Amino acid sequence: MNDLRKIRRALISVSDKNGLSDLARGLAAFGIEIISTGGTAKTLREAGLSVTDVSDVTGFPEMMDGRVKTLHPKVHGAFLALRDDPAHLAAMKQHSIEPIDLVVVNLYPFEQTVAKDGVSLEDAVENIDIGGPAMIRSASKNWRDVAVVTDPRLYQDILDEMRAADGSLSLKTRQRLAVLAYTRTASYDLAISSYLAKQLSEDDLASLEPLNPLAGLVFIETDAFDDETADSDEALPERIDLSLAKVTDLRYGENPHQQAALYQTGETGGIAGAEQLNGKEMSFNNYVDAEAAWNLVGDLAERAVAIIKHTNPSGVGVGDSNEQAYRRALSTDPVSAFGGIVAFNRKVDAIVASSANEVFTEVVIAPDFDDDAIDIFRAKKNLRVLRAKPNAESSPVQFKQISGGMLVQTKDVHLLAAADLKIVTKKQLGEADIEAMMLAWTVCKHVKSNAIVIANRHQTIGVGSGQMNRVDSIRIAAMRAERFGLPTAGAALASDAFFPFRDNVDEAANLGIAAIIQPGGSIKDAESIEAADEHGIVMAFTGVRHFNH
Question: Which of 84, 122, 154, 512 is the most interior residue, by most CB within 10 Å?
Fold first, then answer.
């Protein structure tokens, strides 16, 4: 049997309009009839495209504030009918149902809605999509005949395959799309279940537990892992079922002799869900470094830029403008920035895009870009440009594979507040010391252990990462600062773990360090405090360790 299916009619109904017009133009070039709903139809018409309203197909208007529009036999029959079944074909003819071969649907932004502060239950409920999941599931069930696309990042791949196959899609592609589609609806339902569970009392939840098919997964939330439960036997579930859907194969893994692919968990946001606006395909290492960069700038409330190389920051800067923050990050180590990953936590403008384009960069990541900034970056055809949404919060745990098993831990989401600092020395903090210490500490969380970060209130000055002893990390951070003419005198020094000996403080004093921030908790804390007092250094304990292996 020929496994190709020509696309003649497509239904498009999307909440996320990214890439919509380009996809529709590509489909229209094949003479495909486009059926659509509400805001999607309006967007397509504004783009000059011909659209058939779904109400013209069903003979019923959209009603009940849009709650009912696609729940109709002329829609679902068009998806579910088996094209090689005579009885199905006869039913279609009898009821004037025309087949639909491509379904492009993404869902109401429920996850993003409930992530907002102060969202009401009513607003959350209105963002529970009904017609979308129903269409996805109906069409996916009949993946032998119908292709289902739920992610804008797949649009270009779909069009490329259709152009190579005279407007058709292969059976393998349709099945792969169905896997992604079912994963998306599963994660969507899980997010809704988890949110609604938060509205119930503990007794109500306990009564549901025997009926819970996921045995602890559904009701797990990030805020459930507080200080009181982190060490409890109940903090992590007895069973964790992972469902991963392949998005795309990668050229290779960390090295060319290793195979690799990108899989999604179905969560929204983050690097796996980023929209690529320019450049050649992402590599395995690009994804790993991009994740490190995005996580770092996400932890900084100020306008910030991070430059990452091999998962470690070569430089981080904050400023009143993107340009100022970028220049500060670059000045920490302009040599290592070559071939690095640059992440912004604010919308990127044309001014900083021009500056960033002066340095060879592998990937640029930001929550958004000005049109002019995108045009500037596109002048370098190989530069990968990612527009990323905030990281998904639906999964509070992270995994690390070992031989024969999997290590699971709650994510390190701790963010230090200045009020939490415990000053343990005679000398007290000034405002500049606080800002420098807080920046150094936040960056240090994202450096491989043993980690040392030297910073002032505006930028990192030197970074020492991944050494077998902490004194060497201090010396490496100092070496980098000296190499690029950045003064350590008066700066703050952060350590991801406690100082086991006073030699760390003595080494810092030789650099003119004014303030040290560290977890504390060593049996020799008193010696480190005494050394700081001798050198006139202010020292603050955080009570939190940030190992990053």
Answer: 154
